[in-house]
Amino acid sequence: MEATMVSDTTKHYPVLLKELFSIITPQHGGTFIDCTFGQGGCTKKILSNDQTKVIALDRDIESKKEADKILKNFPERFLFKNKKFSSLKNFKLKDENIKAVIFDLGYSYTQIKDPNKGLSFNSFGELNMKMGLNSFSAKDVVNKLDILELEKIFKIFGEEKEAKRIALSINHLRKTKEVNTQDLVKLIEKTKRIKNYKTHSATKVFQALRIFVNNEISELINGLIGATKVLKKDGVLAVITFHSLEDKIVKYFLKHLSEKKSVSRYEPKIDQPETLFVMKEKKPKKPSLKEIKENPPSRSAKLRYAIKKHDFYDFKTDIFEKFRYLLEIESYGNKL
Ligand SMILES: C[S@@+](CC[C@H](N)C(=O)[O-])C[C@H]1O[C@@H](n2cnc3c(N)ncnc32)[C@H](O)[C@@H]1O
């Protein structure tokens, strides 16, 4: 998941950058929304073209440091908001001609390396995993949720085959002490019967917890809806994903708004164009072998995009029903 990094430097390297820029074409100017500012890699590259403007968002307040530096150089062309991208639909942008909205999901190198965030299983101390603007942490999840809820989170969000055994072991340990990051790593290593020598035993559980703690499913769904609303005709929606759940959601969203549906004549007539987007490429763009060699974690990245065909603001989508099973799991967090 932490694919946009190179392990032997301290710098964050955005993945699929060349491919993304060949789609959004900032060399011709325009206003862009960067929903995942991070260390500002994409934003800076857009702003290096004259006649461009960037509105950038990031939920992590740490991003503001880099944003402030950019603001000094481009006070007229850059705006940063420390907000979650799910809030995009509330932005008053009806008069702006947004050329593209971009999402580069996952975590930045600086976030993964920040010991206080505890995103990696090499971290010590309390479980955390909050990216920013969260209402609970991984400590609350692991120490407070029911066994069955933990099992579902690990199984569905992490695709962890031994989810039940791990949830039971957590429940056993938390009767005697509060479970911290290293307790969880050791417990998983001890509990799992199936060993995979390519990835760390705790990878899937940690992925599941990060998705859950950051409400990544509803963030993505609402972010895509908000992005679609703020775009006008010919505007581009481009998303880089790093795990299969994210990609499934993006693929469904773009495809179902690009395809004509056969509507039953008994259904109420919907006041909406038959298709909202056009997808020039059905298959996602993936990193080249050269990029994967230079930056191995990039191997899981996929870039999908679509172009809006109408100046249409309100639209109907069944994406919430389609992914209800994931949203129901996410709702376990409401009681924390
Ligand atoms: C992979 S990094 C982006 C890197 C960036 N493209 C660059 O070039 O530096 C992902 C960023 O998205 C942010 N992020 C993730 N989910 C978010 C959300 N729901 N709302 C706003 N920002 C989010 C993270 O805090 C992180 O900084």
Structure description:
The protein is α/β, with parallel strands linked by helices and 336 residues long. 38% of the residues lie in helices and 12% in strands. It has 2 domains: 17-110 and 216-314, Rossmann fold; 135-213, Orthogonal Bundle (DNA polymerase, domain 1), CATH 1.10.150.170. The chain has helices spanning 17-24, 41-47, 63-73, 109-113, 138-144, 147-158, 163-173, 181-191, 203-213, 216-230, 244-256, 289-294, 319-322, 324-330, and strands spanning 30-34, 52-57, 78-81, 98-104, 231-241, 277-278, 302-308. α6 (147-158) packs across α9 and α10 (216-230) runs parallel beside α11 (244-256). It is globular and about 60 Å long. Mean pLDDT is 92; it is low at 1-8. The structure holds S-adenosylmethionine.
Listing every helix as H and every strand as E from the N terminus to the C terminus, the arrangement reads HEHEHEEHHHHHHHEHEHEHH
CATH class of the largest domain: Alpha Beta
Number of structural domains: 2
CATH topology title of the largest domain: Rossmann fold
Estimate the mean pLDDT confidence.
92
Estimate what percentage of residues fall within beta strands.
5-15%
